[in-house]
Amino acid sequence: MTTTTLSPTEALAEALAVAKGDFSEALTTIWMLLAGMLVFFMHAGFALLESGSVRNKNTQNILTKNLIVVSVGFLCWYWTGWTFAYGVDVELAAGEKPNKFSGHTQAVMDGFLDDKTLFRNWFFQGAFCATACTIVSGAMAERTRLIGFGVYSIIMTSWIYPIIVYWGWSGNGIFGYTGDDGEGTSIVGGPAYMDFAGSGLVHLVGGVGALCGALFVGPRKDRWLKPDEFVPHNIPFVVLGTFCLWFGWYGFNPGSTLSMKSKGDAYTAGLVAVNTTLCPCVAGLVVFMLRALVVPPKLLDVGGFCNGILAGLVSITAGCAFVKPWETIIIGFIGGLIYQGASMLIRMLKIDDVVDAFAVHGACGIWGVIALGLFGNPDEGLGGNGVFYGGNQLGVQLFCLLMIIVWVGFFSVLIFLPMRMAGLLRLSDDFQDAGADIMEHSPSKAYSQDASLTSAEAVDPASSDPAIKADS
Length: 472
Fold this sequence. Notes:
The protein is mainly alpha-helical. The chain has one domain (16-90, 99-439): Ammonium transporter fold. It is built from 15 helices and 3 strands. The protein has helices at residues 8-53, 59-86, 117-139, 146-169, 199-217, 235-252, 263-293, 302-317, 325-348, 357-374, 394-421, 429-434, 436-440, 455-459, 466-471; strands spanning 172-173, 176-178, 184-185. A 3-stranded antiparallel sheet has the order 1-2-3, covered by helices on one side. A hairpin with a 5-residue loop joins β2 and β3 (184-185). α3 packs parallel to α5 and α8 (302-317) packs parallel to α10. The radius of gyration is 25 Å and the shape is globular. Mean pLDDT is 92; it is low at 451-472.
């Protein structure tokens, strides 16, 4: 038996290679954990925005749903979500190919200790899963029973969303897998579906669920008879929530590089961050100006400005790594118009979507996926494949959009309809009149200050005392 002795130069090279590998893994783990934390922080934004958008008598109720989505969502992601979304069977016989419908391995983190990189991926992708479900809660606010929303949350995070993710992001699903020629393709041929951070796979999933939920739970009592009574009770919360969501989006989009081992990863993340900044700026301003100058009552609408910003963020999420900044500005401009049009259409149809969840996440999610089929020059080296440059991406983008809408819509109806018929979905009129906070929460008010006080009395408590008023 002979042993090979390395020269000092060879030993040093081997040690450097090991150290480089270790540093690369550590850097990627730090990158993905930080990005996952930012995505997780988006739930603070959702909580602020949604609680600010409801009437104050339902503040605790919507916050409870936000907490349930995260708590239940991550547990469902642990039990079945990750398995269906990323549990690709790699131990196949010669000639066999992985299942294209769903995953079925790594249940309850089986095998994670053999490949510890899976822990960081589980955390990052689990935050996405909870985000998709949170979108639904805002649309159904103020009149949805907790049990009904809880049931939907379980099925959304354990089945509906994970299957869509397997189709699009596992590398083996019907939206994108490696063909016999070694190139990426889809079940309908052509190129694989493209969606860098989830305009379709995350936001459209939540948007379709939100639309179905709003339809089946019905409008809030007297919503269309007394529209002035249904204004957001805390605009500062809405604005602060929007900034929190925008901040979290810098984990959502740049973090979707899923790696930080090379300068190529770093350059991609930089481009994504730029596009994630420009698009919401443009879309937000478009909506703000439309509501100030064109759409009655032609006043400055801060809440509309916020939703326009979110619409821009959703619009660029699919293509943020594949398009140039000037293309992003066009995408944001059209995204703002699409959001405004969808918001007006939803109201015209008298669908009570409290936070405009479908207009923001559904309509602009559709646009984001389509935009990636239009923009992105293949010759730029960014991975784009838009028809404006002779690419052939649009067909598969449209097919996958339809599949997402049908899948989410079918199961949402399958869940909401029986619950509505069983009386498990909608709060009674008495609950809605009194407010869910006072009927089923402890304490019975979200704010210690009496909500019946006028703004003047809130500033100067003495103004509510008749004796003091008389003296003055």
